[in-house]
Amino acid sequence: MMKPLRSFVLAAVSIAFLFCFGATSLTRAQTGKQPPGELKVKPGKETQSATESEAPGKQTKDGDKERGKDEEKEPPPSVTEHTITAGGKTIHYRATAGYMVMRDWSEKKKKEGEDEEKGPSAPGTKEGDKSKDKDKDKDKDEPKQKAKVFYVAYTRTDVGNDPAKRPITFSFNGGPGSASVWLHMGALGPRRTELTERGEAPLAPYHLVDNEATWLDSTDLVFIDPVSTGYSRSAAGEDPKQFHGFKEDLASVGDFIRLYTSRNTRWSSPKFIIGESYGTTRAAGLSDYLQERYGFYVNGIILVSSILDFSTARFAPGNDRPYPLFLPTYTAAAWYHKKLPQDLQSKPLADVLKESENFASNQYLLALMRGDQLDDNQRKELANNLARFTGLPADMIAQSNFRIPARRFFFDLLKDKNRSIGRYDARFTGIRYEPGTEEYDFDPSYEAVLGPYCATLNDYIRRELKFESDLPYEMIADVRPWNYANVAQNQYLDVAEDLKKAMSRNPYLKLWVCCGYYDLATPYFAAENVLHGMQLDPSIRDNLKITFYEAGHMVYINHPSLLQFRKDADAFMQDALKPRVVSAAAP
Hints:
Blueprint: H1 5-17, E1 41-42, H2 65-72, E2 78-86, E3 89-103, H3 105-118, H4 127-136, E4 145-156, E5 168-172, H5 181-188, E6 191-193, E7 208-210, E8 220-224, E9 233-234, H6 246-263, E10 271-277, H7 278-294, E11 300-306, H8 322-336, H9 342-345, H10 349-370, H11 376-390, H12 394-399, H13 406-412, E12 419-421, E13 429-431, H14 444-463, H15 496-505, E14 510-516, H16 524-533, E15 544-549, H17 559-576
Helix pairs in contact: 5-14, 6-7, 7-15, 8-10, 8-16
């Protein structure tokens, strides 16, 4: 990560802007033992062992035609059978780990059009010659390969095979540039990374445990690694940058979802999408894209640590919007670290946050709008109130014109202890090696989970899922610069309107937004503000549900929040699938 603020924000965003952040094991850890309940392994490991020398977008050498042909083939996935016990229930399931090859169907359509323009073969052409031409072009029937998208899918095998009765949920994280590992190994999947009760890293070596809070009990799961993340790569000769942008990402992930649904005959299944951090941006965009492009309607969308309007999180000159929206999270962090005055410190967090929210929405917001029109008494009162709700010195706040960027808050709240606090989770602290400065050290809340998740994911894929690759699994890939052209020129990206359009056209679509009070990457008050600003029609306003957790960006690493998250998910899905008819015809 780089020192300047912009690089810090971009690098941090690439875990969740989304990753887009524990949990103590309530079940056994599998340390060096055979994976629990594994019954059999079907043939179909990755046929090619990818190596780091096969870099994304690298051209195939002229003398290596055979490898070029092999790359165009659809590699078979690894399929394994497993059993776990979760919530007192025995669950039998099939795990599929592998690639979905993404092809350029527009080029195929274009070629077919060119062939039609050429007309019939020239007079005198023999049938035998035509057959040779067909044989010669047999391998060219498939459109050109653009990328291979890595995914892991879990399907219950003990609940019948009627897709209409079995929901399917597509999951991804954010960044942009993050793999789907965090939701996969932290909350939804059948196996999870073992952390402490509060979500801290234990002593290595790290372990996997059966996930008692897995969603597999209620829905099949598909975890998607967008191109350049995880094991996903662009095809040989293809520039990976063509996938690194808001619209480009929607097209590739959306096409994966369509293709997976078709190949696995799941069009008649109830369908959900869950995204975390920038994954919420993607999910909101997909809600509109899938409907418009493929007529693909989903039953519910789940946003974990939501960022729909980027103006709420960009501390830039002329943009005062983030300051009041971050204030309640500053208050939550100061309360947690016991930096508030005693009258606030003695109250429950929920009560303290109500006071902070009220101040942020009224006096603070109005004061920022007045700029230099505040007199000395008003400036002093404002500085004292902000000090009261943040635990920072009033004179420092006044000196910065009452604008406290998140970066400064990370380093100044515990400055007297030579500690910084976490961006993804303000409960975490780290030792400063640039004390007394605003030079970026590291995010202690990221470091708390990176090592355990990276080790367990890499071991799990080979040992239990039997998928082999020598490529590095890119937990966080460098996909900068991310292309926002034609969607955010001279403004901030805002996908709230896309979500509103999707919900307006599909009045059955349910939306659930999950927020952590200690999340300083995508603050809960900012998410709430944007959602209410959508001004949904009264007839569909009840389709929106917002849930708050005493956790950070990764709400599920705090073990009590993980269990509550699972219960809330059950309630949301049951509500989304409740039989009902929304009248559309005039009476």
